[in-house]
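Need a sequence for this fold. Nothing fancy.
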């Protein structure tokens, strides 16, 4: 397998849009990075991670989550690949 492709996929899995930056598609990378940041903010993903992993309060973490925003992740991930 080509190392260049493997690195691009690894960067995409870290944060959507980084693989496109690595490949030189700056506009698409910036667009995906921005959309993923909006998804994280409006879906309250950071609060979910804080309450579930660091505090162990899974019920509060579930109440923070906005499912309408989080359900966009699979489509953005598929578009980024």
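Here you go.
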């Amino acid at each position: 397998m080509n190392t260049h492709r493997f690195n691009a996929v690894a960067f995409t899995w870290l944060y959507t849009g980084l693989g496109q930056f690595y490949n030189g598609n700056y506009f698409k990378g910036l667009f995906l990075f921005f959309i993923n940041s909006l998804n994280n903010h409006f879906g309250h993903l950071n609060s979910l991670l804080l309450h579930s992993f660091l505090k162990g309060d899974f019920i509060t973490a579930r109440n923070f989550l906005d499912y309408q925003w989080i359900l966009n992740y699979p489509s953005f991930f598929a578009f980024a690949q």
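For context: Residues 26-42 form the longest helix (17 residues).
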